[in-house]
Design brief:
It comes from Rhodocyclus tenuis. Belongs to the binding-protein-dependent transport system permease family. The chain has about 260 residues and is an all-alpha fold. Helices cover about 85% and strands about 0% of the residues. The radius of gyration is 23 Å and the shape is globular. The two termini are about 25 Å apart.
Length: about 260
Amino acid sequence: MSSLASVHARSLAYPFIGLGLGLLLWWLLVHGVGGQSLMAARFSPENTWSAAVQLWQGGEVWDHAWASLRRVALGLACALLFGVPLGLLVGSWRDFNQSTSTLFQFLRMISPLSWMPVAVMALGVGEAPVVFLLAFAAVWPIVLNVSAGIAAIDPQWLTLADSLGANRREKLWRVTVPAIAAHLLTGIRLAIGLIWVVLVPAEMLGVNAGLGYFILDTRDRMAYGELMATILFIGLLGFVLDWLAREAHRRWAGQ
């Protein structure tokens, strides 16, 4: 028991050790390399912490966070709406796969941010182009992982379902969906990571709320402590979203 407890304690301590080393490196870069530079002082851990406390108490950053999370949810929902059926087609229909694989790989390799001018011209300024960019970034890992899940299904499962008289709908919900669930959750986790990377620059497309907008606002106000605190807050939220996706995958895989 004591050895298990010590292993558990070390596993909990290591992340904090890493964070502490990162904080120490940050402090050394500001106060050592930066020296007496005014710009370095503005981005110091002390100034950032003070600004973070004020943002937390003021609540403004939470309004922007909710706006960003709402766009993340919409983008992910759109990606699932298109990505899951496409993945099912790619994985189960060989002719469709061969006809579209080159096209999908070509589109997948285009940076979502390169579509920003086209999205604004086609959809205008506001929520629509932001959600489009997020959905475009998220759809490809969903398509690829769903199709991989279809390819990994044991054919004997489908043969057994046929022998029991299952129709197409029953095979879909009783065999296919449970079989691809783990792959889909992996795709969702990868999609969330891509969405979170694209979110901040996408929110610089004329919206008046969101973490990307708030980054520009703090820069324009020269509130450098708030700027750095918001950057760290974005990292924290992204970490929480990824942890939730990993936990969902772990729980499903453990069933």
